């Protein structure tokens, strides 16, 4: 089940149908601007959104979006007070954003302790990471002879949703449940990953593989 069904009061273009899948716009959830997307946060590329569900991978039809979320069911979080489903995923996303994509890893503007002499090194680190390691996984419905998941080595069946990581390799396909950080094992929020030595990492743990993090202020890198 898509945990983010359209909510009353959030729909505006009621007469339009969706260009990409032709479905009724009424069935779409509208992007929650105030929450911001991972793409915005990373400043990676123009915002592509999944108009069925604002925090689902773009490019999937409504049916594929449902399939994506149902394939994640075994890793569904349980929220505070035992909340499940959409509410629990929403709470998980908020936590995961802060933990996986620390603002101070993304831009100097959020660092308080990097002095004048180290600004250049910080900028170089961030630029190099963005250039060679950081990317967003691409979700699609897989068709063809089954391939082995680059995470668990078990087969990905034709017809199921898969996530590709181009920075790992052209043929790097993952089960949605296997698209997680090699260090903390958390599902990668909105499929944002860093590639290092053929493995997936969240932004936080990618940095920590290369630089020590200060436990006091949570900033990295320290030179
Ligand atoms: Zn649609
Ligand atoms: Zn797998
Ligand atoms: Zn991690
Ligand atoms: Zn510090």
TrEMBL record:
Keyword Metal-binding: yes
Alphabetical list of SMART domains matching this protein: LIM
InterPro entries: PET_domain, Pk/Esn/Tes, Znf_LIM
A Pfam family: PET
Sorted UniProt keywords: LIM domain, Metal-binding, Repeat, Zinc
Domain LIM zinc-binding span(s) in chain numbering: 147-212
Molecular-function annotations in GO: zinc ion binding
PANTHER family, per the entry: LIM DOMAIN-CONTAINING PROTEIN, PROTEIN ESPINAS-LIKE PROTEIN
Designated name of the protein: LIM zinc-binding domain-containing protein
Organism whose genome encodes this protein: Heliothis virescens (Tobacco budworm moth)
């Amino acid at each position: 089940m898509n945990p983010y069904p359209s909510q009353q009061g959030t729909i505006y273009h009621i007469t339009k149908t969706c260009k990409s899948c032709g479905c009724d716009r009424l069935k779409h959830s509208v992007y929650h601007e105030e929450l911001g997307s991972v793409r915005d946060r990373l400043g990676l590329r123009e915002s592509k959104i999944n108009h069925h569900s604002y925090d689902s991978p773009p490019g999937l039809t409504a049916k594929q979006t449902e399939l994506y979320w149902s394939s994640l069911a075994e890793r569904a979080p349980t929220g505070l007070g035992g909340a499940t489903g959409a509410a629990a995923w929403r709470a998980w996303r908020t936590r995961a954003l802060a933990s996986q994509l620390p603002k101070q890893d993304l831009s100097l503007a959020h660092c308080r302790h990097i002095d004048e002499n180290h600004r250049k090194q910080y900028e170089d680190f961030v630029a190099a990471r963005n250039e060679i390691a950081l990317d967003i996984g691409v979700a699609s419905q897989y068709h063809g002879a089954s391939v082995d998941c680059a995470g668990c080595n078990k087969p990905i069946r034709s017809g199921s949703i898969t996530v590709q990581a181009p920075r790992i390799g052209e043929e790097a396909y993952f089960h949605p449940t296997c698209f997680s950080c090699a260090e903390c094992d958390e599902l990668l929020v909105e499929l944002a990953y860093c590639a290092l030595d053929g493995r997936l990492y969240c932004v936080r743990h990618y940095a920590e593989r290369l630089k020590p993090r200060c436990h006091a202020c949570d900033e990295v890198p320290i030179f």
